[in-house]
Structure formats: C-alpha cells, structure tokens
Amino acid sequence: MTRIAAVHGVLAPYRHTQSEITDMVAGTCLPAGSDRRVLDRLHASAGVRSRHMALPLDDYAKIDGFGAANDVFIEVAGDLGADAVRGALGAAGLRPRDVDLLLFTSVTGVAAPSVDARLVGRLGLRPDVKRVPVFGLGCVAGAAGVARLHDYLRGWPDQVAVLLSVELCSLTFQRDDASMANLVASGLFGDGAAALVAVGERFPATSGGRGAPAAGPSVVATRSRMYPDTGHVMGWAITGSGFQVVLDPAVPDLVRRFLADDVRAFLAEHGLTPGDITGWVCHPGGPKVLDAVSESLALPGGALDVTWRSLSEVGNLSSSSVLHVLRDTLARSAPEPGSPGLMIAMGPGFCCELVLIRW
After folding, report:
1. Which regions in the chain score pLDDT beneath 70?
2. CA angle 39, 15, 239 (to 5 degrees)
C-alpha cells in the first residue's frame, strides 16, 4: 500500500470577506446601474464567509486580457507551489532531492515550461526527477492525483512521489459577464495550493539511506468513474478573455443519480459499507453538491463537518480543496488508527474519483 507521509496546504496572500468580494464582482461583472439582488443572493447562499485571492481586489479590474491574467498565474503559482512542496516535505521529514516523481495539476492557468519544471531548480529537486503536469481535471484532480501517485508507487514501491495542486480561480472570473454561471463561480471559488507527499510500501528499506518519513494514512485502492452524456455540465469555454466557466445547475442531480451506487459497489469490493467509513474526505463543491452527497449516501450528521468548515473559511479551491480537507481531517479529528476512510471528488467529464484510505 502507498503511505501518505504529509499534506500541506497554503493560501493566496490576500484574504477578503465574502461581502467585499461580492462588491468587487458587482463592479466588474454587472452593467452599470443594474440590479444586483440576484448576485447578492447567490453569494450569500454559497456557504462562504471569506476567501483568499492572488491579487488585491482593486487589481482585478486592471487585468487586461487572458495573457495578463496568465502571467499573474505563472508568478503566483510558482510562489504558492514552492511553499506547499517545501512545507509538505518538511512535515514528512524528507528533502527535495528525495523526490522521484512530481505530479503537478491545475486548471486555472497554463505554462510552458510548466510550473513543475520551473520549481525543479527553485526547490533543489534532482535533475532526473520525473514530472507529470496535468491540466483539465478540475476539482476532481486532488483525489485523482492521489490515485495516480498510488498507481506509480505500486510500480516503484521504494520511491517518493509528490502531488502539487495550485488553483488561482479568481484569475478566471470574467469581467462584464453577468451570466448565472459566472456569478455563481465568483461567489464560490478561492485561490490556494496544496502538496501531498506519498511513499511506496518498500520505502525506506531500499531507498539509498533516505530518512523514514512521518507516519500517515495508507491508500488501499482507487476508483475512477466517467458518466455518460455529461460532458456539457462542467468545464471551461476557452474564449479570447480566458477561461469562461461552464457550470450546469444539474450537477447536484447527477451526484444523486450516480454517486451512491458507485461508492457502495467500490466499498463492497473491500468488504465495507458506507457505515464502516470513519472519515469522509469530500471535496467542497458547494452547498447543493454537499447536500446531495449527504442525502445520497445517507451520511450521519456531522460526517462532512470538516468539508463544510473548509468551504466556509476559504471557499472552493478546485483541485486543492480535497487536499486541504484531508490535511484538516488529520490535524483536527483524525479517525481511529486502522479504520477506513474515503476521499471523494468530482469534476469535468462529468466524473468522480474515489480513494479508499486506512487511517
């Protein structure tokens, strides 16, 4: 089994209350003099009290096009990514040169050389480190990234793999776009990053003298699911002004339709039921999505408290969010050692990723 040695989350430098962000969105997205009651209602119902952003609020109106926004992404993603990886490696008791694989994921900016490539020299990673930059998975990528690290470490059980997620969602907000999808997204998503360090089951026995990392939960198994005829419900429309959000209100209905059967079938393969899960590490997709998860799985009260708290305090960080929830679960309310937990995230496709862990 793969062992999760450490998870470290960081947030963008500028923190604002939800009401402050709502005022900024009203000034940049709504026509002058228009009624903002729909915007106010959407933001008030998002379940978010505050968020962190890559720039001061006044600077968003100054961004001139996709290229300028992407330049900010490259700069800030490098800073947050470096902080996240350093923090995770430090918590795991490992050094940058111990890393054999770096998987980087984001859906809020692009770069070539990729952000992971730019971090090799900056962090002191080995020049032979293997890199996998991933774009397009969106919110599901946090859990999917853990699953792909697990796949890799099953083949290289004496190695160290790092997942880095950086999402600067505020840089994708579309000026002069009063569409319902843009207004919903502007009230939900925040900016942050997270890094997760995982080691194979033979580390450090054959690791060339590298130190043993801190103990953490193990990854037991993973499951990926794509749902038919749902590609239109979530993603980006790539326009001259950048990434325009596609967000269909049917997403909670899809969760109710598909998630419970997939979770039950996956757990049954390991002799488990949802009632056996002692820790639910769920991506904070939004209030309606979390309600759909709770209802479809008949979760007990409080099962998603850590997820709800993360949504309230920092918003939806896309792929970074489920890693923040995992970190908070380990720090605040780690379940009984040896008991099973489940990571859940959903994203464009429409798809779901499940990761069975043992605390």
Report:
1. 205-214, 333
2. 55
